Amino acid sequence: MLLNLHVKNLALIEEADVEFGPGLNILTGETGAGKSILLGSIQLILGGKPSREMIRQNSSSALVELLFQVDDPETESELSEMGIQTEEGQVLLTRKITEGRSVCRINGETGTVSLMKAAAACLLDIHGQHEHQSLLYPAKQLEILDAFGGSEIAEASRKTMKAHQEYSKARKLLSSLDMDEEARKREMAFLEFEVNEIEAAALQPGEDEELEKLYRKLTNSRRISETIYSVHEATGGDRMAADLIGNASSELSRLVEYDEELSGMRDTLADIEALLEDFNREISSYMDSLVFDEETFHETEERLNLINDMKSRYGRSVEEIFAYRDRQAEKLSELQNYEENLKKASADMEAAKKNLQKESLALSKLRKKYAASLEQEIIRGLKELNFLDVRFEIRFTEKECASDGMDNIEYQIATNPGESLLPLGRIVSGGELSRIMLAIKTILADRDRIGTLIFDEIDTGISGRTAQMVALKMAEIGRHRQVICITHLPQIAAMADRHFGIEKHGDEISGTATEIHELDEEQSVNELARLLGGVSITEAVLQNAREMKSLAGKEKCKEK
After folding, report:
1. Could you tell me the pTM of the whole model?
2. What percent of the chain has pLDDT over 90?
3. I want to staple 314 with a disulfide (CB 3.0 to 4.6 A). Which of 183, 321, 388, 469 is the partner?
């Protein structure tokens, strides 16, 4: 459920803070007061594209925040899979817009627009003119039917999708094996050459690294010899460091009997003398091991050249070369057993195709079973929305099995006696389409996990008794879900559990601004009177508004 909407510096809204509640939340206001801005702010959280024009004049940025209460465990689990954890059951979605960019935050942590869009889609659903129009598309119609079928169709759809993935994989494998005899022979010859070349090299793991170390040593042999000899002479030769330190140590030892404070320095110098002797023994041993010959150098250089050549073609290391050899050997084996592999791949594809057909058929049978129930539910819902002589049917045609099964469906309707059933787009008006969508949302209300439904333009092209029927439907959905509805019809506004007014104020000094505030009982009656009476609000209009509010309350009590 949407607990709070906070908007700052967005178009005409300087700052608005709206506390929504459960049930039916109604927003009304004069044309141009800013109702569309409010809806647009929510669309931004759903991934809508921001623009510089959205930012209020003389402001550097705009801010939209939606705070949700999440009570459904499945929704909480779905958010968790996205890496979003609720905090005391709440989720805060924030989007800040500045010139040229926007920043999204979820529970205070920066996230991507796509992540915020996915999170918001779990929490709210907006139905405006565009969403009504989507009802004309077969994909949306199929989505509604599958939602009506609930977990049973969801499980069958999952099996069908998995079967299609297996079929696609098997078909791709079979296609990859399809080659003529000449191409197969050429490929085998090439693979044999590469595998044999790598095998003949008899590479050893880590060999390249050891050879590179040896090569560096051999190529710098003269410099190493000269420097080591020089170091040895400096530290161990006649009158060099070792001899000088030895003499200094002896001299210092003789002085200790005169001043015991010199004993510490004598000991330190003795340690240095011992370390230098150890160093000289080690460097002498190293000098004895120095053996450089041209044959070893050339052998090392040739071996390194071979390995580096193979690295340039097969991998950046000996291990990668081995991995490449294994892959090529596997391909070679497959080609050597081509006929057998082709026969197996063909059989696997046929088996996968039959499984896909089986799962698609099972899904189709379920859809047809639920379609019969959905047809009756929609007809009942439409009659309650003043479609008095309506007929409605879900037509099935078969298509090639795909990830969504074998069904093409089409919603067909006849709204008057004697008319033939025809596709929705050829018969219904915008207002009728919105009522059909409302009937469907009412049917799905207790099956849908999304906690907040937002309706805009649900009252397009309707009035009178039809408006009253729509209002009752809205209230019915509000018993199962939180509903937020922007409307201009008093019949719908009268049904509000919470009523919000949207007003535009302004002058030449402070400019124009939109304000949103919750209406108390008397303010709500005044707003209904405005919707009923327009410019002139007489006592009779006010009395009519009070009566409408009272009757709406009684209707809601009856439904409960």
Report:
1. 0.63
2. 34
3. 321
